[in-house]
Every structure is written in structure tokens, then in C-alpha cells.
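COURSE: Structural Biology Practicum
ASSIGNMENT: Worksheet 4, Part C
STUDENT ID: 0417
INSTRUCTIONS: Below are two proteins. For each, the amino acid sequence is given first, followed by its C-alpha cell string. Answer the questions at the end about the second protein only.

PROTEIN I
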Amino acid sequence: MKGILILSIVFILCSCNEHPKSHNLIKTRPTIEVEHTKHQLPCWKLKDRSKSSTDFFENQVDSIVLIPLENHKDAIIGSVSHVEIVENKLLVVDANKAQQIFVFDMQGNFLHTIGGKGEGPDEYTSINQVVVSPEGICILDWFRWKFLCFDIDGKLRYKHQFKNNIPELIFRWDEHQYIGSHAGYNPQNPYHLTWRNDKDSLLNTGLPIMNTQSAPAGKLQYAHDGSILFYHTLCDTVYQITDKQIIPKWRLGLYEPDEVSAFLAKTKEMSNKEYHQQLFDFKKGTIVNHFTLHEGKSHWVIDYQQPPYAYIAVFDKESGKAKHYVKTDFNKMECYVPFVFNSMSEDWICSSLDQMFYTQLNESMQERFLRNIKSEEQREMVRKFDIENKNPIICLFHLK
């Protein structure tokens, strides 16, 4: 279970830059304002977990498909950073060990890689962000300040070399503009969002950062309707970004009204190290320290963590109601859903089975999961899975 805790922290902090501590918050005025809301925002009320269950697979999933990835000499995967279905192919990212992006067919047969690591003009030296956009598969390289975009066949569509230090996350806004999300307060850039052109000139700013601590970068995300959403850990509101306004769309309801402000006041004078220790205190949860939204055809899936628990909330778009499931109980050292949810396609959750499944779960917990797999052939595949010599197994869960 310790491995799961560490993975959770690393996942969150990988987008985090340590800026020098400064208690003098500079008040700023953004060039793109948040639209004034005349009416109360719709709220998903995710704070209400009184009826949460540990039976995610039994109650929420009606089909499980396991896809073993081919052990090809050109596709040796050490760890899975991201999985997504793109044009009926599996996009598998290993940003840490292999530092490559692989493409498989839906049976797990290796097809090719996308891009490559190196010093060349069309290569990357690090994979710090992979986003599937309407234009292609976009890679952000922090070390070289480079932005590359490929199609699913591996053909380079465009590239851009930034001249100055770049945000932690970047989306291409249009042919000549980029929007970036920043991790934490910096007197030279006190905003969550900035817009730049392809000449590296700062065009617009939005959502001033309200505290001086470093923090995970906010999440930029494409919605099914093609719009761009933005949210970050210490905020309960999901925003829609347009070229003229930042529009509050809904509240998640993860926090009590004054919970975030009380946490920021409590940690204001702490060093960044002390602050992050407080944020990720697994003995007594102080605040939601991580959440990610995944959009399906009929559902939103919210994967979030408030120690001593990690949760999954499944929000039904039609009924407007959410069901809550305990993913991990750190007090009991129990993990009920031993997977990192990476993306959704229609109402299929894309995930992977790797060392975490075997090293963190005892035999009874493994068998509890296996009972939800209808195919005896696939159950045997998991039981005989060789973590030392096999590529990971991709796991697809279909929501009811």
C-alpha cells in the first residue's frame, strides 16, 4: 500500500515547481475576467459521501475487458503514465522509464511509436505532458521548451520552440496562440492562466493566484463539446475558457464553504516543504489534495483524494446525481480499486494493470477483483501475469 501512497504523491507533484517562498502577494488585475454569475452555480455535492460504498466493480461496472500488450522488441514498457483510445487504437505513454509513446491496436498488437527521444528538431528530451487534442497528440518538453504535435500514425503535424520558460501545462489555442496553466505563485507571473503567441509575447492573463505557496498546476481539459475546461486543486469551481471570458460552469461541492481559506490561513507561514507535508498528511485529511475529471458519454468520473481515503465519484449526466466509492482506505491499508484511471472513451474507463496490482494487494483482494471478470480465460490471464517479463495489461471498465 505504501507504493500506492507514493505514486499518488508523485502523480500530483510532478506538475509542481518549487518557487522561492514569498509572503508578499502582489495584487494583480487579469486581462481576461471571470464572467459574473447572476445565479447560483449547479453543484455536484461531492462532499456528501454518507452512502459511499466499496463495491465499485459490483455496482458500477457491467463489463471488463483486459488487453495484454504485445512484448515487442521496440515496445518495452516499464510503467504506464497514460492510456487513451484514439481512432480505435490504444495510445500508451511511458513518460518515466522507456520515455516513449506507443501505439497498439485494440487486441494489444504493437504498431509503432510516436516521436522519439533525442536532440533532433522533431524529437523530445522529456515527456512532461501528453494531451490528445482535436488536432493530434501533443507533447510538451520542459527541458527544451518544445511543443510537438503528431497524428496517431506518428506523422509530425506541427512544432513550436518557445524562447522563454514555459508553463507547466500548455494547450494550443489556435494557429498562433497558446494557453498555459502555472503551478504556483511567482511575482513575475502571478496568474493561473496565461496566453502567449508564437513569438512568445504575453497576450492575456486570467485567474490571479491567491496564495504564495507552490501548488500542482491546474488542469486544462477538452470537454466532449470541444470547449476547454480549467480547474485546480484548491478551487471548487470548474471553468470554461473562451477567447473573451472565463465562465464558471459548475461547482464540484468537494469543500465546506470556508475549508480552503482556513487551510491557506493555517499554512500561510509554512515553507513549501512543510506546506506539502500538510497537504499530503495521510494520517488526518485536511483537504482534498488531488482530483481529476474524466468525461464519458453518460457519466463524469471524479477521482479524488482526501486522506485517509481516496474516492471515486460517478456523476450521472442525466439524473444529476453522484454515487461515491472508496478507492483506498489508508487507515485499514485496503485498496478496493487498484488502478489509476487515465481517460474515458464513450463510457469506458481506460486504465492499466501493472506491478501495483500484485505488490499492493493480498490474495483475497486480488480474487475479489477477479470475480468481476466474466471470462475465465481473462481471469487466468491475470493470475498468470508475469510482472517481470511482460508488458502491462490494459484494463477497460464499462460503466452501467
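PROTEIN II
(use this one for the questions)
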Amino acid sequence: MSILAFSVLVWVGSFSAGLVGSLTGLGGGVVIVPLLTSVFGVDIRYAIGASLVSVIVTSLGSASTYIKKGFTNIRLGMFLEVATTIGAVVGASIAAFVSVKFLTIILAFVLIYSAYLSQRPKTECLEVVKPDPLAEYLELNGTYPINDGVMSYNVNFLPAGFSIMLLAGILSGLLGIGSGAFKVLAMDQAMGLPFKVSTTTSNFMIGVTAAASAGIYLSRGYIEPGLCMPVLLGVLPGAFLGARILIGAKTQILRIIFSIILVLMALKMVYNGLIGGL
């Protein structure tokens, strides 16, 4: 395969990754890593390096739109980024020394269960309940736009959400997947945020988490400019398009897309774990 053909195919895959990552809050890594390793035979470490770069771009490409429209909870995102950044540094630091085969299989089953949780009936307009005292003290509760105005919501179980974010950061550093799945589920299921707020705040956060890991991968020589360039050029327009689509999309459709991607990602991880691909 020529360099031009390789670059074009990587661009197409990266565009799809940016679109999916922006719509669901997962980050493009859920597509980029399997694409580069399974289809193009790229070494897993270089694939993770390119994936982390793509996650940063996905975040930058979509976060500004979500913030402007009033969906993203910036204060909550910045607070939870403390946990994800610490976890990302830890995960990236041990990635070169730890076998992740068993971890990916366990993670796959967790993701399948997470897909089931995300499909449980839940109304878009949440009833306002008594907020977490810590969230109230830190002024993390917020509002988001709906068709006929603005809806208020409270942040619940903040310590549990913070703990899940720490785990999400470690997984991001280890696997280069952005760990958006756990960020979205932590905010949507554990903390009781509306789904669109969860996905947009996840998009805001994943760039910082990935940047913390990417610095370590860069220092170890796992970020290859020739591979990252077509990835960046594809992910960025995909992320912008996804941001525009999400604003008018129905929440249930987003949940279905989210669940399908989680299951596909889980199956891919099981496959890689069993055949020794990771």
C-alpha cells in the first residue's frame, strides 16, 4: 500500500472516529486504536499515541460548540479533571510495564454491562432533587437548554463520580481510548446528569485527560508525526460535524449509538485479549 493510499484510508477512518466521538462523548480512540492495529497493522503503542492525539483534537473540535450552546458544565468538568489527569499520568506511566490482556477482557464485560445501563429508561427532563452537599458547596449544579427553555439539574454522589473518573483516567493512559465511556456513564448514571450534559462535559474533559497521557507517550517516542497527521486532519472535521448534529439530536438515539459502540468496543477488546493482540 502506498503512503498516499494509507493516509487517505486513515483519514476516512479518523473522520468517522471524530464524528462518533463527538456525538457520544467517547473520544475518537474507541475507533482509532482498533482501526490502526487491526486494519493497518500499526504497533499498539504507536496506535495509542495517535489515538491520544485524536482525542485531544476531538475535544477541542467539539467542546467550544457545546460550551457556547450552554450544554457543558465547565465547573464540574474542571473539578473531575483533577481525578482523570492524576489517573492518566499513573496509567501512562505503567503502560510500558504492565500486560493489559486480562485488563481489557475485564473491561470488555464492564462495557457490555454499561451498555445495558445506558439503555435503562430515563426521562430527559429530570426531577430536581436535593443535591449533593459538596456539589452545592462547590456550585457545580447547573442548567442546560431544552426545546422550550432551560432545565435545571443537580449533581449527585460527587465522591462516587470522582472515584470513577480516577479509574477512567488510568484506563485512558493504559489503553489510549480516551475513557469517555466511563466519564459519560459516571455522570449519566452515578451522578444523575442529563445525557446531553454528560456527553458534552465528557468531550470537554477528555482532551485534558489525553494530554496528560500523550506527554508521556511523546517522551517515549510513541507519537509518530507521519501517522498522527492524517488522523488529525480526519478527526477535526468529524468532531465539528458531530457537535452540530448532537445539538438537535434525540437523546434516545444518542443512547442507542452509545450502547452499540460500547458493545463493539467490548467485543474488540475480548478478541484482542484472547488472541494476544494487546
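ANSWER KEY EXCERPT:
Q1: The chain has a mean pLDDT of 77.
Q2: The first helix runs from residue 3 to 24.
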